[in-house]
Amino acid sequence: MSELLTREQYQAIAASLTPAAMSFIDGGFRPALSGKTLPTVNPATGETLAELAACGREDVDLAVQNAREAFDDGRWHKQHPSARKQVLLELCRLIQREGHELAVLESLDSGKPIYDCETIDIPELIKVLTWHAETIDKLYDQTAPVGADAVAMVVREPIGVVGAVLPWNFPLLMLGWKIGPALAAGCSMVVKPAEQTSLTALRVAELAVEAGLPAGVLNIVTGTGVDVGEPLGMHMDVDMVSFTGSTVTGRRFLRYAADSNLKKVVLECGGKNPCIVLEDAENLDKVAEQVVAAAFWNMGENCSAGSRLIVHENIKDALLERVKAHAGEWRTGDPLDPANQLGALIDKGHFGKVESYLQLGKENGHQLLMGGDTLDGIYVQPTIFDGVRSGDRLAQEEIFGPVLSVITVSSYQEAIEVANDTDYGLAASVFTANGKRALRAAQAVRAGTVTVNCFGEGDITTPFGGYKQSGFGGRDNSIHAHDQYTELKTIWIDLSDDVAG
Ligand SMILES: NC(=O)C1=CN([C@@H]2O[C@H](COP(=O)(O)OP(=O)(O)OC[C@H]3O[C@@H](n4cnc5c(N)ncnc54)[C@H](O)[C@@H]3O)[C@@H](O)[C@H]2O)C=CC1
Ligand code: BAL
């Protein structure tokens, strides 16, 4: 992690930035073929940061054509594994070199607090890319047990041209979760960042070429979901799409694949994740700290946010006192002030959605324990509603804001039933002093990641993705992510007619 700077120093960096906002195709920046642009706005100030290339189908076609040529001539995947590893490690070094600038750009474009950009997004991006780079020259293929008269090799080959469609809540980190394993596997890529937050992906693509990644291997096409995401999903020459975003849009990619070339689709979608605090949970102060982080980290704009607190009635009051105390320490405001833990929501439209849930909670008679306020039409204070029942909208719908719904239960069994009473199944946390009970709960909750006595998403070594409507087709992170960007091939060699046998 780079050393934190002062607010004034971050403001000075912000003033010095001149971000590239065109698409990045075949190793260079270019405007949309139509010449159209769309503004990308700093949500905290409402100022336009840059005019983004508003690309369309023709730009997607061009990017895919370049990615396909790069893949077919093998300029990346046929390089020696150790050479490819060095390129990705060099990219990490350049990201580190540009760390403060990238962190400020990420904060300006997304409203995320600079503290998180510096301490989480940039270091985690480097960690993810490094981990996948290091796998390149350490993976072996297999031979199958087919007897003496044949040799059967089971080899992994890069899947080809990968489309990656990204969300706005972790622009750099989600870029890393996709390009790390896909480039390590040897694929070529066309990345479509969210239209709200494209600037850092463009800078990373530029750095990748500086690091030695051949032109055409990593292309970035900016624009809206309808104009860029859909043509990418429908493209006949894209072999796979990896998507992170809402379940509604994720579903569309399955239709695009069905209506085009049956490309492989991997989806990482929404969540309504439970923090389950059982009656015997110990150290309620630490539990409260974790519950607060789960609910309010990244302004709750997080697919794995612990937005439902399911707590046993016997410890509820003691826990909620501590939750309120910890949440009260989280400061909301200027994202470039490193003292703030909550920044701006992504845009006015999303702010309006979160505000409507604050209204809903108040109208439905839930008890507002804290927060419920907004600032400057873009910030939302950490908010806690008590007295929520499992079927209520506040307990069922992904709000994607700093809003925690408290559901009270009176038994372990009820806690598990409530935890599973959702269409989602991304993540869950269980707090208990009983180790066996913790394992039972981890087994019983239908979610891709279950953490015990802490909130978290695992790390780069552990797969991340969802059960039920939280995901489809694969996992981000770990060796499983690498594998999903490959095809399995069997090569069977008959030895039976060789006389020496
Ligand atoms: N799981 C997660 O990490 C995320 C969940 N969300 C959820 O989704 C809600 C809506 O946010 P959105 O920005 O609208 O998410 P979204 O899922 O629509 O956007 C994610 C990506 O998909 C693209 N996209 C949108 N419509 C598309 C289409 N018709 N075809 C192809 N690509 C398309 C977008 O341009 C963006 O790059 C949020 O309030 C939140 O609940 C949003 C972002 C991330
Ligand atoms: N928390 C990482 C994945 C996501 O929110 O989209």
Automatic annotation (TrEMBL):
Pfam families: Aldedh
InterPro entries listed in its UniProt record: Ald_DH/histidinol_DH, Ald_DH_C, Ald_DH_CS_CYS, Ald_DH_CS_GLU, Ald_DH_N, Aldehyde_DH_dom
Keywords: Oxidoreductase
Top-level taxon in the UniProt lineage: Bacteria
Catalytic residues of the enzyme: E268
Any one GO molecular-function label of the UniProt entry: aldehyde dehydrogenase [NAD(P)+] activity
Domain Aldehyde dehydrogenase span(s) in chain numbering: 34-491
Family: Belongs to the aldehyde dehydrogenase family.
Name of the molecule in the record: Aldehyde dehydrogenase
Natural source organism: Oceanisphaera psychrotolerans
